């Protein structure tokens, strides 16, 4: 797993889904996606990185990494399912990882993260978006 210690909440992504990690200053693609945007603006941090993962249909998915990064193994028994209500409202979070030290991490599912330009099926018909 690649773990990101974002001050808002720790999040992780399977290392097998990560293509590469670059310093934010070296990233020349579009704006990276802040997977914790619902928790507020990304805080200023000295260590900003872009974690490029495999997104939907194999395209590169740039995720904003705010804070320290760590790579490590996770015991499969420490990966806990989300409650159904939370799972349906946040499909980009596939589980919670309970570490041995008692800390928690949100497990991000890259294939469920939407690009800002993507629309949800039926969204174009929603009156609030017109």
Notable traits:
disordered C terminus, 1 helix, 9 strands, mainly beta, 130 residues, 3-stranded antiparallel sheet, 6-stranded mixed sheet, 5% helix
Describe this entry's structure for a reader.
With 130 residues, this protein is mostly beta strands. The chain has one domain. It contains one helix and nine strands; from the N terminus they run E-E-E-E-E-E-E-H-E-E. The protein has one helix at residues 84-89, and strands spanning 2-5, 10-13, 18-23, 48-54, 60-66, 68-71, 79-80, 93-98, 104-108. A hairpin with a 5-residue loop joins strand 4 (48-54) and strand 5. It is globular, with a radius of gyration of 15 Å.
Give me the secondary-structure topology.
Blueprint: E1 2-5, E2 10-13, E3 18-23, E4 48-54, E5 60-66, E6 68-71, E7 79-80, H1 84-89, E8 93-98, E9 104-108
Parallel strand pairs: 2-9
Antiparallel strand pairs: 1-2, 1-6, 3-4, 4-5, 7-8, 8-9
Within the largest sheet, what's the order of strands?
A: 6-1-2-9-8-7
Q: What is the number of strand segments?
A: 9
Distance between the termini: 40 Å
Give the helix/strand class: mainly beta
- Count of discrete structural domains: 1
Q: What's the helix count?
A: 1
Radius of gyration: 15 Å
Strand content: 25-35%
